[in-house]
Amino acid sequence: MSVGDAPSPALVVGHDPVNVGRGPFNDLVLSDPKVSWSHARLWVERGALWLRDPGSRNGTFIGQRRVTGRHRISDGDLIRFGPDFSVCVRRADNAETREAEVTLVLDTVSGIQHRLREGRLQIGQAEIIEDDGLFLLSAGSRQPLAFGADFELPGGHRLRAIRMRTVPKSTLGTESACLLPYLLRVGLDGPRGAWAELRATDDRIVCEFTATRAELLWVLAARLINDRNLDEPHRGWTDEQMVITAVWGRDATGTGANRLKVLVYRVRAQLESAGVRTDLIQRKGGRIRFRVARAVQLAGDVR
Asked: Terminal CA-to-CA distance of the chain, rounded, Å?
């Protein structure tokens, strides 16, 4: 956001440090060539906000004062990265940074973690509930579960219940597509079928996908293209049941939810290995989307 335009977005810094820069591995990615690859870092230490600029070319500014190295900043300070992009830095209040304890069920084979929602988790024909203890409900029986111990579902599927302490991550108050500066190109007729590639602003391919991962991105790209005139928070959301049907067909109704969880996990793992933010793919309230600046669907293998 340029200085002098609309009010700067609020960057809320919580438990996790926030890395800012042009590189796709940053938490706040700015596609401005005047911003350095690794421009700055913000974090909370003993309740105070801190900023560090390791020596960016065009500087980091607190108000109008250019700073380098480590500096303490105040809640509400206007921080500018380079000449054009500013944020109003806010420290997450006690409610936002307080640790919370959640119950997770770990698939010991795939490594995927399932979180109990409102004390319940449905897995196939079985259900795990938390009600003055943790229990597995299956075939009319109620089996108590112990945290940290493996247990089996009918059919031999091995799981483990764990407790984890979580803290909300830092967030940017006003989102913009420019913060996720990627182009998603997808097609269905490559040499090995469906294909997808994620390109950076310099047209460099940062990640490539095939098979069902590419088919998933094809479906999400279609919605993103259709929603191109919507504001970023509302753009690209697709009903998960529609995605399941599009990727695996109507016969996948019973197993589709677990298949989608595994597929999203693998896409995120591939993004992470490429140094790309894993929150490009999001799920919320039975909907899913892929957050990029632009998507293009292509006929044939025209890469």
From this structure: 32
pLDDT class of 82 with cuts at 50, 70, 90: very high
Burial of 38 (0-12, 13-18, 19+ CB in 10 A): middle
Burial status of residue 67 (CB atoms within 10 A of its CB: 0-12, 13-18, 19 or more):
middle
Instruction: Give the CB-side neighbour count of residue 54, counting CA atoms within 13 A.
Output: 11
* Token duo for residue 22: 């042009």
Residue scoring higher pLDDT (215 or 5): 215
At residue 166, the pLDDT reads: 52
| Cα 91 to Cα 75: distance, rounded to the nearest angstrom | 6
The token pair that represents 111 in the structure block: 């490594």
Query: Of 222, 224, 221, 181, which Cα lies nearest the Cα of 204?
Result: 181
Give which of 268, 228, 267, 259 is closest to 241, Cα–Cα: 259
CA gap 1, 32 in Å, rounded: 10
134 φ/ψ angles, rounded to the nearest 5 degrees: -115, 135
